[in-house]
Amino acid sequence: MADKPLPPSPPEGAEVLEQQGIEMLVHTFHSSADPTLRRYAVYLLGKSGDPAALRPMVEALADPEKSVREQAMLSLVDSGKSAIGPLTDALAKEPAWQARYRAAEALGKLADDQVLQPLIRGLTDNRDHVRYMAAKGLKGLGDSRAVDPLIILLADENRVVRMMTVRALSAIGGDKARAALEAACATETDAEVKDIIRQVLGLTRT
Fold first, then answer.
1. 202 exposed, middle or buried (CB, 10 Å; 0-12, 13-18, 19+)?
2. Is 15 left (phi over 0), alpha (psi -120 to 50) or beta?
3. CA atoms of 145 and 168, how far apart (whole Å)
4. Less Cβ around it within 10 Å: N or C end of the chain?
5. CA-closest candidate to residue 71, choices 57, 86, 88
6. What is the pTM of this model?
7. CA distance 138 to 144
8. Number of CB atoms found within 10 A of residue 14's CB
9. In whole numbers, what is the pLDDT of the chain averaged over residues?
């Protein structure tokens, strides 16, 4: 089991933030130009356990600062099943690919049966980062229903997406996945991707 992520270091003014209710934390997130304050506000929103905090945390998935987006993802994961619906909507509808990427990451970490179909739909996203993260989430789920959609991604234009797809199909296993990997091994032109396929098929030493 992975270690639980450490909370962010309290920024200057953290004591004031920690005394605020949901509305003021949301206001701080929306109005502060300081990414450390926005990140801590999102962290506190996650700790609150208040359903009203879900929407602003989803909004934070599109924050211009990477650390804020990461914190929003972690806080939504900590929110558990209640976050699956908002994250599913974000993966399907958010215009910023960074938000869709983090939504797919969170859904994968939640590892619930309800995230299977949203992640499968994420495999067809127009951004390769999102397709990669959807494949990674399906790798963790290990559900055989993802095999057919993943097989299509063995021909993805992005080599890193293909690498993750190979690992996902290997993790899920089964005759169909193996046959697809064997076929991909015969046609793959990228040496590194081909080597990974051969490794998961047991054709080379790792």
1. exposed
2. alpha
3. 12
4. N
5. 57
6. 0.91
7. 9
8. 17
9. 93
